[in-house]
Amino acid sequence: MEKASIVSIGNELLSGQTVSTNASYLSEKLLSVGIPVVSCYTVADDIDQIVRALELASEDADAVMATGGLGPTDDDLTRQALAQFLGTELQLRSNLLQTIKDFFAKRGREMPAKCEVEAYIPAGAKALANNLGTAPGIMAEAHGKVPAKRGPKLLVALPGVPAEMKQMFEESVLGELQERAHSQAVAVRKLRCFGKGESEIAELLGGLMQRGRNPLINCTAHAGVITLCITATAKDKQQAEELAQKDEAMLRSILDRLVYGTGEQTLAEVVGEKLAQKGQTIAVAESCTGGVLAKLLTDVPGSSRYFTHGWITYSNEAKISELGVPAELIDEHGAVSQQVAEAMARGARKRAGTDFAVGITGIAGPAGGSEQKPVGLVYICVDSDSRCETQRFVFSHGRASTRIRAAQTALNMVRTRFCI
Amino acid sequence: MEKASIVSIGNELLSGQTVSTNASYLSEKLLSVGIPVVSCYTVADDIDQIVRALELASEDADAVMATGGLGPTDDDLTRQALAQFLGTELQLRSNLLQTIKDFFAKRGREMPAKCEVEAYIPAGAKALANNLGTAPGIMAEAHGKVPAKRGPKLLVALPGVPAEMKQMFEESVLGELQERAHSQAVAVRKLRCFGKGESEIAELLGGLMQRGRNPLINCTAHAGVITLCITATAKDKQQAEELAQKDEAMLRSILDRLVYGTGEQTLAEVVGEKLAQKGQTIAVAESCTGGVLAKLLTDVPGSSRYFTHGWITYSNEAKISELGVPAELIDEHGAVSQQVAEAMARGARKRAGTDFAVGITGIAGPAGGSEQKPVGLVYICVDSDSRCETQRFVFSHGRASTRIRAAQTALNMVRTRFCI
After folding, report:
1. What is the chain A residue with the closest CA to B298?
2. Are strands A90-92 and A120-122 parallel, antiparallel or unpaired?
């Protein structure tokens, strides 16, 4: 197996009711055994459309994974489509029928008549056990199908319910694929960066992100975090790992402090871990972010080791009474000002008795902006024993984006400016 | 326009790094104007593959929506692929270049050279303004392309970043599609429910959720919120609206107070709007939810009308010093107890001087549980002028789920128990 293609089947996937996570799950798993997914097709519960998608997918790849449409209702048509594609008939397998009957008997119920259809499998195909539901999966080889350049194609049909699909894939499919996988091995590394945009990072990396290069370096952006994914391909695992490691080292030397972590690490995790290691603590005082920063910090299990106090001082009164921000400061400079951000951070650190405290005040929008103080303007202050530092930012992309970016930027200030 | 097809472009979509929500968003929006999506293609950042997908999509449908690959980096190839598909050249548009330069200038930065490529548009195509980012979208008509059965095809290329894609689609594409839409009309209604699970709601609705029924009623679940989507099809808009309205009334009578809102409304929006209408205010005191409730409340623009103060008292010391929770209460009953939840809510309401205050304390996990106090145990108290009510819950499905469900449940308690 060199390449895979995925066919997602179901009306609900085309009406926008369901966001399918199956394709991305399968893509990641397949890549991990050295079989990259090259295309995905999403089609309705319609025999002709399913057959066409199977044909397209088997033109693209030598392993085709279909999900959905194996249930007992009239709109579950993947079985029939698969038989048609293979040029065979569906056959009732009595052992499968018994398994389905047993599934219901165990739950004190009789098998609904509709479920009998799930015991039908294309002639010559293999049924895959479903330990969480009733519909078995199907594995078949398509011999001599167009275009059979590289020998037989492997076709697998899995249930659409994610939990059933995953268990079946891991128990009955992954091993088979691993055995058939092309001799090529793949190693994947992820570097997580914060502090510059996607285009700036791409400029720093220059030709490294060129397509067709091995390792391949891909870049994605989410909530201000830039993830660089290094995918190295080689003859064996060790070579692939070495290639990936070499690129990782190169990226790290180019991007330096922009890289804050690896894999799925969040900024809050990395900052929190450093604080825990040093036995330091942090408190937050938020206005425009309204709890986003506290949430990011406490998303991390064990964050109570270093996070103790948070204030959301959304009104001026709260800033004054809870954090001791002088009323005159607000009168003079406005609630969104460097001075108030500083007074918030200092007040929070004093009350909480922590090593660090963050103060954030800004205009998340959509309303409330002015010429001097536009929507997206945010002041972030980090106060510590040694010093107090405030920065001014103007974020864009609307309220939600401004809030999450401001909170992430605050974490990044703690990371980079205070060398924790 | 009778049918649409979607082409999602990006290596990250095929490596399993990103779950694309763009296709489901577009599917839903297109269906709402009577243009069902009949297929989706996901391909890599590769010119040939993008062109092939555009060809397949335009065989399936007369409106083709592509997302992704419009950025400034070398692996953003949608512009070139679109020009190739249309059989035209890319042209530099000086007005677009100026807009991109202005975008950076506003932020006090110079345009990175890489971004110039974003000002190139296929000859004859229209650029779509991007109010959140730099890359404009593209709208073009493909005349005489294979197979041009039903006249010209509409091709639209949108950014892959969901926020940019959505705003551009709603501002510059939806209206155009509506004008060209086929005569069949579709009306969509969404009811948002909280308080029971998906299967319980399905059981209450019985045969109403049958497939093939018109209107079609679909059910999705997210963060404890059950969304029922009613899709009615009829000859004209009025008939479709009437059908949908009838079903909405029926669902409302069955589900009663479980229904909290419509459309995309969140619980925080609905509760907040009620508070604003009555001129009432709310404060929160969070322990295990660590800011999630405050974040939900302040996600809503204008929430400063009713939300003033929040405390995240993650440590016992914070509960004592900031909210006046008696130390003996924590010693006697533990920090996760009905008594402490109550003291937190009362303390918060007293300090903030609000009409309502919520206190939440629990064990989000994964560690910290015991026989008597398992992971997922949460006490939620709502204090008001008239009374103080505390409920005990045991949530499952892990830390993140427990935190969001606890926060949502707190909002639902304010909604249902205090009849606001």
Report:
1. A290
2. antiparallel
Residue type, position B188, single letter: V
Q: With beta carbons under 8 A apart, name residues in chain B contacting A23.
A: 42
Q: Which of A5, A27, A188 to mutate to test the interface with B (most CBs of B within 10 A)?
A: A27
Contact call for B211 and A75, based on CB within 8 A: yes
Q: Under CATH, to which class is B4-180 assigned?
A: alpha beta
Is residue B19 within 8 Å of residue B55, measured between CB atoms? no
Task: Kindly report, residue by residue over A371-404, the tens digit of the pLDDT.
Answer: 999 999 999 999 999 999 999 999 988 899 999 9
Architecture of domain B267-417: Alpha-Beta Complex (3.90)
Convert the pLDDT of each residue in A298-323 to its tens digit. 999 999 999 999 999 999 999 999 99
DSSP summary character for residue B115: G
Instruction: Answer whether A349 touches B (CB < 8 Å).
Output: no
Q: How far apart are CA B223 and CA B92, in angstroms?
A: 46
Alpha-carbon distance of B364 to B378, in angstroms, equals 8
CA distance to partner chain B, nearest, from residue A326 (Å): 17
Which residues have a Cβ under 8 Å from the Cβ of B208 and sit 6 or more positions away? B217, B247, B250, B251
CA distance A141 to B213: 37
Domain boundaries B185-262, corresponding CATH code: 3.30.70.2860
Nearest CA to CA, how far is A167 from chain B (Å)?
17
* Residue ranges per structural domain of chain B: 4-180, 185-262, 267-417
Secondary structure (DSSP) of A205-272? HGGGG-TT-SSEEEEEEETTEEEEEEEEEESSHHHHHHHHHHHHHHHHHHHGGGEEEETT--HHHHHH
Domain pair B4-180 / B267-417, same fold: no
Residues 249-268 in A contacting B (C-alpha not used; CB under 8 Å): none
The residues in B 272-291 lying below 8 A from A, measured between CB atoms, are 284, 286, 289-291
pTM of the predicted structure, to 2 decimals: 0.80
Average pLDDT, chain B: 92
Q: Is A203 an interface residue toward B (CB < 8 Å)?
A: yes
